[in-house]
Amino acid sequence: MNSMNQFGRRVGADDVQRRTERLKALATDIEAQGGSVRFRALDVTDAADVQAFADFAKREFGKIDVIVNNAGVMPLSPLASLKIAEWNQMLDVNIRGVLHGIAAVLPGMEAQGHGQVINISSIGGLAVSSTASVYCATKFAVCAISDGLRQETDKIRVTVICPGVVESELADSISDETAREAMKTFRKGALGPNAIARALVYAIKQPDGVDVSEIVVRPSGSAY
């Protein structure tokens, strides 16, 4: 978030897990560095809640120039484990959450004649790995949605970012013991979140008419 703050933009921060205290701390840190921030917790699986967040941002800042659809969950498991509730959770957060974010800002961006939608996919949206079938399916969907939106509008820039292994809480949602143990090795040498923030800044800072459609960011020497 430091990279985004240094970019000099006003930021609305959201968190599907409603970590309100952490959002407050983040807002305080941004403001201490001279940024302007408003925060509001929301549930990305609820289209009305996402629309309310977008309306809140427009009231506070006047318009929305960029949205970053970043919410995601990753409860990996073999398909044979039949963790259907977890499959549905990934569909709801990872796919519907992105669609709800797009729906909340698309009319306003079209009306103002510009805007940028940045969707966070994954290297799992480029290749499938064992225990990650459903997760990868959701991230392939994010890539497809992003490219479809890019083709449908010439007013809005669309970027999909595919991170490799990044320090995050994604693995905390893994309930399958085998997948959880495998992830410990997988996550060695993970990138810090600022690496992804810098990729966001790079895409946003491009001149009008330049659309960075896809960015893949992974640790140097990573096999994944």
UniProtKB/TrEMBL annotation:
Keyword Oxidoreductase in annotation: yes
Example GO molecular function: oxidoreductase activity, acting on the CH-OH group of donors, NAD or NADP as acceptor
Protein name per Swiss-Prot or TrEMBL: Short-chain dehydrogenase/reductase SDR
Xref: Pfam families: adh_short (PF00106)
InterPro entries for this protein: NAD(P)-bd_dom_sf, Sc_DH/Rdtase_CS, SDR_fam
UniProt entry keywords in alphabetical sequence: Oxidoreductase
Homology family: Belongs to the short-chain dehydrogenases/reductases (SDR) family.
